[in-house]
Every structure is written in C-alpha cells, then in structure tokens.
C-alpha cells in the first residue's frame, strides 16, 4: 500500500462521495473506486458501506481513517523537516563579527566557505561592544567571532581561532624603526594613534594597564578613534604624526610603505579571537563550516 492509496481513501472517507473525492484528487471516479477496492482486498476488510445509494464508513473504515491520517500527518512532518534542512543547506550563514579583529580573519573564512560550499551564502554582521554571546543566537546568527572568552555549555560551544600579539606601528623614518623591538618605556612621550577609551573601556584598560606595569608613563598626545579605524590611524603613522599599537596583520593589510611594525620587547599583549556557535544548529553544511575555522594551539 502506498501514500497515493492512503490519500485516496482519506478523500473518500472525508467526502463520503466518490465523485467529490475524485474531483478533490483530480482523477477519474473509476480510478478512485478501484483504489478503495484494492485497499479493502489487501486488508481483508470492508471499509465503506455503499448500500442505499450512500457511502458510510464501517467501524473498520473509521479506524483505518484515523490511522491513515496519522501516517499522512507524520509523512507531511517529515517532508517539512527535510524542506527546512534543504533550506538550511542552501540558505544564508550569518556571522557576527566584533570590532578590531585581525583584518584577514573574516575575509579568509568567507573565502573558504565560498570555495568549499558555493551553495551557502555568507552574511557578515557587526556586533555591539562586549555583547552577551548567549543572546546573539536569538537574533538569527549562526556563528560569532568575539575578542573575549566564551563560557561553553550545553547551548553554546566555541574555541579560539586566532591569537596575535600587539606591537607598535612606527614611521619608517622614526628612530625607533631601527630597533628590532620596542620597550614600553620607549613609548613615553610619543603621540599615539588608537581607539578612544570610551569605545571599549575594558580592552583599553587592559592594554594600557599592561604597558604601565612594564614602565610606560603615558603618551604626549593620544589621537583617539573608534576601535575599527585601523586605516585612519595608520595613515597618521605614515605621515610621521604618531605611533600606534597595532597587530602585525593590521599593518600588513592596511599599512603604507612608510610604516613598519615592531614587537613589544617587555610586555606581551595578545588579541585572542574566539568563535562561538549553538551546537544544535550546526547540522549538514553548517557543521562543515566549523571545520573551516582556523586552529590555534
């Protein structure tokens, strides 16, 4: 017995009229009659009482209608689930991205996804400063990249995908450019170009607190900008107007021929990027995206 036969019987049982059932199914009436007879023969039961020019369900027919409806409803649920899965496989993968990440991280990931899974579109969304990671997935995001540790649990999983030390972007003609590395104290009195404290107080205090602990006493002038204004601050460095605390990847990506990068000699300040996701959403192609994330020891 197949699904077509079940749908035919349900139509007759609900209409209690072979002609109306045939119209509903868009088939000829004799085909409907033959289908019902074939079902009755297979079951060895009379499902419809056709006497006195009317159609009525027998007790067996009423029971079979209930069971047929349950089977068809379960099938419809399965088809709907597969449709949702198919949509997820070929839909859009939404990534939330915090400010001031290593600049090549997101483009590299998007390129990998596009090359391996061209059926999956990728949409990148900026995140607010210091977001509540658990709440981000209620907005439809599939993956988030943030600059803070993520508390893993039953609903959220994650791992570190990038770790890079902060150094100093220096004008090529500046005396400090001749050094292999720069101490925190050597930054004293030099103008600095960087993001303003109110853009992200926690990261700002972490960075400058570590510098002060290593002997730094403060800049001559602090040229403030929002935390994503890497290009603007490096242009200022290129003119000789300031130094800037930067990642080497930022200088490579946005740098100028008149800018060089030097590591800090006596303090290590790292930018650590964590990817987080909801495990129950990562099925099919979405789970494959996780395998494309960079791995950091």
TrEMBL record:
InterPro entries: LysR_HTH_N (IPR000847), LysR_subst-bd (IPR005119), WH-like_DNA-bd_sf (IPR036388), WH_DNA-bd_sf (IPR036390). Signal peptide: none annotated. Keywords: DNA-binding, Transcription, Transcription regulation. It comes from the Bacteria. Transmembrane segments: none annotated. CDD domains: PBP2_LTTR_aromatics_like. Residues 1-58 form the HTH lysR-type domain. Belongs to the LysR transcriptional regulatory family. This is LysR substrate-binding domain-containing protein. It comes from Amycolatopsis nalaikhensis.
